[in-house]
Description:
Radius of gyration: 13 Å
Structural class: mainly alpha
Amino acid sequence: TLADAICDRIIYNAYTIQIEGESMRKRKGIPE
């Protein structure tokens, strides 16, 4: 359904942002 597609998109985007944030943090050497 459309709602399922929207939820999948939101979850996918949130997951992608989280991964990018972690990789950027490692690259810049910023501690937790």
